[in-house]
Amino acid sequence: MMMTHGLWTSWVQWSVPSAQADAWQHRLEWGHSSCSAVGAASSTRSNTMDVVLHTARVARGLTLLTGGTAYDVATATYLNPSDWTDRPLTRFNANDHVTVVQSDDSEHRREWFYTRGLSKFGIDEVEVFQPIGLPSPPILEKLSGIAEELIRNGHSPTVGSSVTIQHLALSVRIVRHRTHPSTDMPLILREVSW
What we know:
Radius of gyration: 18 Å
Oligomer: single chain
Strand content: 25-35%
Structural class: alpha+beta
Distance between the termini: 45 Å
Number of strands: 11
Helix content: 10-25%
């Protein structure tokens, strides 16, 4: 089923083939009896934010109507009906669609911070590293601001280029590009520094 609002289109596959549903059930370790899929139809650079917001609204509606659980593949986030109460989706907010993850990089004795969800907008995820023990809230805030600006710009900057984040008074430089073999799907990343 296609769901359209103006130029924004999303699709819903009400019944996923049983083999695919079984694979998701096993992968996500949940006991739901049925599985549907929601996705964004093609979008242009100018309406990507609107299409992603529309698709999230469809997923929110289905979760609330069925009392089920939504799983955002791009952010690796589970959303139950109660999780949507602080996400009314009345307007676009980058934090509704992109998360910042903090993890240990024990091999190099440092902390790894990276985004999940920029891929919804056709943009590579961003990452940064810092020594273990330093405060993380400033890093989380900065990565959220960087993600918001990249969504607004609509493309991944090239290695060696810089992006200015006005509201954070920050000049961000793209240091390198790499692919990280994540457990669920490979992450295409651009390391940033400021």
